[in-house]
Amino acid sequence: MLLKIGDKAPEFSLPNQDDSEISLKSLRGSKILLWFYPKANTPGWIIEGQGFRDELNSFNNKGIKILGVSADSIQKQKTFFDKQQFNFDLLSDESHVMLKKYGAWALKKFMGREYMGILRITYIINENGIIDQVYDKVKTKTHAQDILNGI
Predict the structure, then answer these.
(1) What is the pTM of this model?
(2) Tell me, what's the pLDDT at 68?
(3) What is d(CA 51, CA 94) in angstroms, rounded to the nearest whole number?
(4) Closest among 36, 107, 40, 126 to 76, alpha carbons compared
(5) What are phi and psi of 54, to 5 degrees?
(6) Cα 55 from chain centroid?
(7) Residues 6+ apart with CB under 8 A from 135
(8) Other CB atoms within 10 Å distance of the CB of residue 78
């Protein structure tokens, strides 16, 4: 189930692309954009990630740190990070524990087939660890700009 505006963001501690632990607790006092994507190095997520990369200064000017999250391995995250020259951390949740807490791991349907996968969701978490915004209708080409226009 998706989190809602006003919900307390669940705690997490996950490795980034460099195998360094990043936790919500360590980021307390900062606004966070938590971006969930199904799989590294796939066309839609490349475009969406490039949007965040290209708009990083605008997010920084608003005091927002960006974190991408998928179930990909640390190595796959590192390859994605390096290839796309990302300037924000990509977190690896191979166990799906954090993905489930945030309602991002759910039943999906594609061409009549059902499977478990990562939903396209972005949360804005405020300095106190509370969900300020929920984006569950994502257009990969304009997502970063859509968020900037809405905050």
Answers:
(1) 0.92
(2) 96
(3) 25
(4) 40
(5) -70, -25
(6) 15
(7) 121, 122, 123, 143, 146, 147
(8) 18
> Hey, what amino acid is at 49?
G
Place of tokens 């660890």: 129
The encoded tokens of residue 101 equal: 């807490």
Token digits of residue 100: 């489930």
Q: Which two tokens stand for residue 75?
A: 């190595």
pLDDT along the chain (151 residues), means of 10: 95 97 95 92 81 94 96 95 94 97 90 87 96 90 88 81
Output the 3-class SS for the chain: CCCCCCCECCCCEEEECCCCEEECHHHCCCEEEEEECCCCCCHHHHHHHHHHHHCHHHHHHCCEEEEEEECCCHHHHHHHHHHHCCCCEEEECCCCHHHHHCCCEEEEEECCEEEEEECCEEEEECCCCEEEEEECCCCCCCHHHHHHHHC
